[in-house]
Amino acid sequence: MDKVLQAGRLDLMTLKSYVKPHMLVLFAGIAIFMGFSVENSMSIAFGSMIGFLFVSYPFALAERDNLNTLYATLPVSKVKMVIGRYLFAAVIVFIGMASGSVMSVFAMLVDKKPVDLKVIVITAASFFVAFVLLFCIQFPLYYKLGYAKGRLVVFIPLMLISAVGLFVGNNIKDTAVWTKLIAAAQWVEAHPQGFAAVVFLAVVVSVVVSIFASVKLSAKNEY
Amino acid sequence: MNQILEINKLTKRYDNYTLNELSFSVPQGYIMGFIGPNGAGKTTTIKSIMKMVHPDSGEIKVFGESLSDSNEYNDRIGYVMDNPFYCESWTVQGVEKAVRGFYKHWDSKVYADYISRFQLEPTKTVKALSRGMKVKLMLAVALSHGAELLILDEPTSGLDPVAREEVCDILREFITDEKKGVIFSTHITSDLEKVADYITFILNGRLIYTGPRDELIESYVRVAGAQKALNEALREKIIGLRDHGVGFEGLMRREDIAMLSSDVEAESTTLEEIIVFMNKGEKNNG
Hints:
By secondary structure, chain A is an all-alpha fold. Helix content of chain A is 85%, strand content 0%.
């Protein structure tokens, strides 16, 4: 576990050297502005998104600064290095989401709107889960192809999912599938804890599968 | 004699080049110079040891054990190459912060001593360091976690003679502990003539020689003479023959010098000449 934490910390140090305080102030300002001008919860979305944008930095810098060689010289297994990167990414998305939530509360207070913590927590958790699932899709591709090639294809799975979603959405109304989806939505409404457990399980499975894929896909990489 | 590194029939095939069944070992307490011209397979061999490339066949053992997925043995290996592998925006201090947690025996005092000895400014970023300073930074890291095997891939290329001498001094100090070993790949054979006990010489992916340095140098002589002395029998024995109108020169096995006539000069050779003439010999033979 210690080596996993060290691997995550190494990625954090890689990122830290490129993230300057004025950038964070700028992002905080934009998050607050969006919270005021669009919708208070937009601050959470923006914060989570910024966190998500930073999670691919270690891949980019590994290529630029020859860090894959550094990783190869360290007394830590590839699996632990990969798990460390996922841990780093989850922490960064969480920090972005948490910061966005704080900005959102700030925007609500200034706007003199009631602060509904339940809504904030659900919104924040939704964005966190969404971005964790996103990097679970992207990381194996980055590990396989590297950042330069990978960034061109990491959005293909997302576009495919969106396209399939749109197609299905437009074609299943008044079908048996539609009826089942309505029933599922009603179940979610009636059993929020059960739904949370299902989502949690889905995230855990996605992370484990993604880590496994990242290790397997990068096993043949040469530097 | 215990071997700190053993390579047995290491093979790696690329489209236009093959590292072919390379075998050699590095004994504890000695420095192994690893030589060969560009493209001979030195870096492929070293990267195979570091698991940065995956051999097609063969076995590599470090500290008597085969390479494993845990990479735990890297705790006992210090690696230095010609290009740095740290984030360019890290400071010299930051490099220590980034890597020390991975090593069981990291010694911050030793690191600080090397930083001071190498006159590296702790607050300077990797990007701002000169090439020589970057090599010294990698050496400082390699020597601060109790490494027993140093793997050096062209660390002195591009360094001035003073800095190269300093690196050689460090290697001499390192090897005073007889449990340690060094594999030192370099083009600058004069460095190896100062510090290497053993030499492994590869050419076009094949092992040409592995053994004591002096034995290699003493096995060959450099021959030169007038054109008229170059008969067919001599031509066959000369490695890397350089025929230049009025005369010729080349390399020859010492055991063959009895056949030389009095108008052909034979003199001691150097590692550099051995590489150059052997390489030319390969090219002459097509």
